[in-house]
Amino acid sequence: MTITHTIPRHEYTGDGTQTVFDFTFRVFDTSNLKVYLNGTEMTSGFTLNENNIEFITAPESGSQIIIVRTLNIQRQTDFQQSTIIKASDLNFDLDYLTACLQDMQEQLNRVPIQPINHAADQMELPIPESGKAIVWNEEENGLENTEVNITELAGEVAQSATKAETVYQNILNVLTGSADAGVLGLVSNLIELIRSNHPDSFDEMGWVTETAGLTENYGEISETATLTVNYD
Q1: Mean pLDDT within 59-73
Q2: Is residue 24 part of a domain?
Q3: Residue 192: its H or E element
Q4: Looking at the domain assignment, is residue 222 inside a domain?
C-alpha cells in the first residue's frame, strides 16, 4: 500500500464529552505518534488504536487536541550485494522515506517564510539580547535587534500613562469644581505660562483661539512640582 499525499497532523477542539479522535496518516510504530493537549505532550491518559486515539477522560470543552506523527529519519533496510531485493522491503523503505518528508513538510508549514516575490537570500536570526526586539534592517534584507530596550521602554510608557492620567484627573477636577487649591494654582500657572509665550493664542475673553499652535516643550510636570497658589 503506497502512501498518499497527506499532512500527518490532525487538530481538534474538545467539547467535554468526546473521547475518541481519529487520524488518517500511517503510523509505523506507536512511538511515532505524538498527542498534545493544550500544547503539552501527553504520555498517558489515552489508548492508541489502529486509526484513532481514545482518552480515558474527555478533554474539557475548548481544549486543543493535536495528533501528529514524528519519525526518526533513518534507513530501515540494508540491501546486501548480490541478493534478491524483495518488493515488500523496497516499498516499505520508500514509504518510510516518503513519510519522513511529509513529517518535515508538516514542520515547515509552521515556519515563517519569505514571500515568493522576495529575494531568496538566506537570513540568520540575530544573537538574543534581553529586552530587545527583532526588526528588519534598513536594507530590508535581514533581521537585527533593536537598539532600544523594549522592556524598559514599556515601563517608561506605563509611567508616562500614569502621569497623564493624573494630569487628566486634575484638569477634570478643575472643570467640575472639585479641585483643591494646589491643583487650581498649578493649572493657573500653566495657563499664564502659555499665555505669556503665545499672547495671540487667546482672545479677549481668555479663550484659546482656533488658530492656536502650541508646539513648544515646557518640560515635565512631576508629582512633586512646586505650586504657586495665588489667592486674589
Answers
A1: 95
A2: yes
A3: helix 181-197
A4: no
User: What tens digit of pLDDT does each residue of 173-217 get?
Assistant: 666 666 565 655 666 666 666 667 666 666 665 565 655 454 455
- What domain count does the chain have? 1
- Buried b / exposed e over 14-42, threshold 16 CB at 10 Å, is beeeeeebebebbbeeeebbebebeeeeb
> Residue 21 is part of which domain span?
9-108
Q: In angstroms, what is the C-alpha Rg of the chain? A: 34
147 within a domain of the structure (yes/no): no
Reading the block at residue 86, the C-alpha cell is 524483495
Measure the CA–CA gap between 182 and 224, rounded to whole angstroms: 12
- In the chain the first and final C-alpha atoms are separated, in Å, by 98
Q: Could you report the per-residue pLDDT of 107-156, keeping only the tens digit for each?
A: 999 988 888 887 767 788 899 999 999 999 998 888 999 999 988 888 88
Give the C-alpha separation, 33 to 9, whole Å. 10
Is 78 inside any structural domain?
Answer: yes
Q: Chain centroid to CA 122: how far?
A: 23
Evaluate if pTM is beyond 0.70.
Answer: no
Q: What is the DSSP string of 122-186?
A: ---PPPP-TT--EEE-TTSSSEEE-SS-HHHHHHHHHHHHHHHHHHHHHHHHHHHT---HHHHHH
